[in-house]
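User: Continuing from earlier, I have the next pair ready.

Assistant: Great, send them over.

User: Here they are, in order.

Assistant: Folding the first of the pair now:
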Amino acid sequence: MTSPGTPPETPAGDLERWRLILGAPAGGATGPLGGDAAARDRALDWLYGRDPDLARRGVRRGAGSGAGGTGDRSGDRTGGDGPSALTTVDWLDDVHRLFPKETIERLERDAVERYEIHDIVTDPAVLERIEPDRSLLRAVMRTKHLMNPEVLALARRIVEAVVRELMDKLATEVRQAFHGTRSRRPSRIRNSRNFDFRATIRANLAHYRPDERRLYIEQPRFVSRTRRHVEQWQMILLVDQSGSMLDSVIHSAVTAACLWGLPGLKTHLVAFDTAVVDLTSDVTDPVELLMKVQLGGGTDIARAVAYGAGLVDNPRRAIVAVISDFYEGGDPGRLVREVRKLVEQGTCVLGLAALDEEANPAFDRDMGSRLAAVGAHVGAMTPGRLAEFVAERIGS
């Protein structure tokens, strides 16, 4: 029982959680930690103790700190005679033992993306223990140039696992988009899947019985499905491989692999920075393709568009998708001219600002407006929506 005006006692579990959140400076109010709680605190300190905000707030960090190093950290946020330093392998073992799955994923993601602890993806002992996910795939893509052949072989496991997951998801969306794509042509084949509800209503309005509130169908309407052997279309993906477009590179590789071999569609995949690299020969193996991609460098989008234009066989049956942030490092005027020429010859030009699953657009809007003004479709599409767009074009 507490007296009036006295705050209720905080349960021990809540105190422990606040101590883990606030770190050693809260030790005076919460008391010392023991057992697994102390081990959790040590694991959290190993990672978040390197945050530069701690130094700005006057909180001392233990020896061995510093982002992007070997990962060795002292176990006490305030320094002193704490436990011996953890290695990255030790830390991963502790994290997997002490935290639930959702927390483990967050800690590993922060280690890779926020603090750039490279030995997460360059140390064979670490790679053997870590669970593949998309943040690790991005880290492998950024650091594979640092890896020796042994480490590359282990890193490939991460790439394969994540690509397989992405392929399974996107392949379903692509099949749904392309399987029996509806056309605008009427059909005599009476199949429930081909039933055209709106056209049927329009064709039978004369048979509506107001007294019965019923519409009698005497002339049902159906639409045809796209023929399996349609006239050949081309899908040319031009992918900016600068560092900021990493997610787009990953999803473009997977998208191209899913589109490859679909009836009536010939797919090309081209990566570019200031140079242009045609990766079409590797489209069927997106893992190998991603292991070959070299991120970084400048950006010459106009040069890539000119190369893509040279691949076009039939302008009126070609889709050129430029996946970039549209910050042109080359000649902006030339880029606009190259896109205008493609549009004027009848080619569909897509300017895609993002190609990841969220499709959050981040691009040079001024250049996007200039390209839209000459006839390009500029915006953001998920891989699934891109597949739907292509299917609609082929089926129209």
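And the other member of the pair:
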Amino acid sequence: MNSNNKPRVVIVDDNTEFLDLLSEFMTQKDMFEVVGTATDGIEAVRVIGKTEPDVVVLDLIMPKLDGLGVLEKASSMGRKTQYIVTSAIGNYKTSQLALSLGAEYFMIKPLDFEALASRIYQLLDIDNEKHISREGKLPQNPDAQNIEKNIEKILKAIGMPDNLKGHGYIKHAAMMIINDLTLINSLTRHVYAQIAALFNSTSARVERAIRNAIEMTWTRGHMESINKLFNYQITDKRTRPTNSEFIMMVVNKILDK
């Protein structure tokens, strides 16, 4: 631990967009010191050996050397670094093998950055609530669970299929913007990017999935409910709101409640 009592963290993931977002989250909130990053297992071993971090956030699936290989090599370093292993695949045997090789915790992607931050503080036996509230935790709406349910009700009422990826992306985007309304002005740079990182996708795919969900709803959804809920008078079904317009329609409906 450094003199400022900030955990020193190394992040290892071959998804560079996820890597950048998690690094930015940790740095901007001033809760951690990111002392290194790596996009493959060989580089990870080198960075870990050089920086001697308190915690490594380690993805299992990587080129050159996977996360299990990194753990095997790390065990010979003889240091007290803690490892949090992440993976998009929740395989029981793999998770148990990672834990047997020295990982302290196994987290399934998509990751909740706040939950990851809390886990790091728990592993290092740091007063999580005290530190994060002082250092700047991401804004959390106390009614977040109710807000999520209300968003789902709105999307269901207008006939948006809940099996579409765009359905989930719209829900996440709306919740992010409700927490910080300025994000509506940076959908691609921040909102789409963070959703992409959570779901192991790309900003472009997130944008297309949201557009597809809106197209499907305007084609097959409940026009009367759309008119009633959003006061959106449809004179031509070919005219649809943009992604940002639709997300703000949902946001405004929630905030008006």
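Worth noting for the second one:
The chain has twelve helices and five strands. The domain at 144-255 is CATH 1.10.10.10 (Arc Repressor Mutant, subunit A).
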